[in-house]
Design brief:
Mean pLDDT: 80
Helix content: 10-25%
Number of strands: 2
Shape: flat
Strand order of the largest sheet: 1-2
Order of helices and strands: EEHH
Distance between the termini: 68 Å
Amino acid sequence: MKGNKDKKIIGYDMRTFNIKTPDKKIVPALQDKIDNLTKPKGSLGRLEELAVRIGTIQQSLSPVLRTPQNIVLQPTMVWLSKESAFLPRK
């Protein structure tokens, strides 16, 4: 074990991280950059929100995702109510 970075707990090596809250001062510049792209304002919806979040975390006006991943979750059970569109109509 070296310094505070590594701890040993029941046979597992655990690392501690010093994660700081991102500086929000960059958000207006990120939003301005997104709004001034050649597209209608807000037309990319949640993708624009995600771009601002990633830019804020990376503290960059040009954030980069080196190995982007997709996770698709599918529920194993669907709850249906009496007003559900999935129920057959009588």
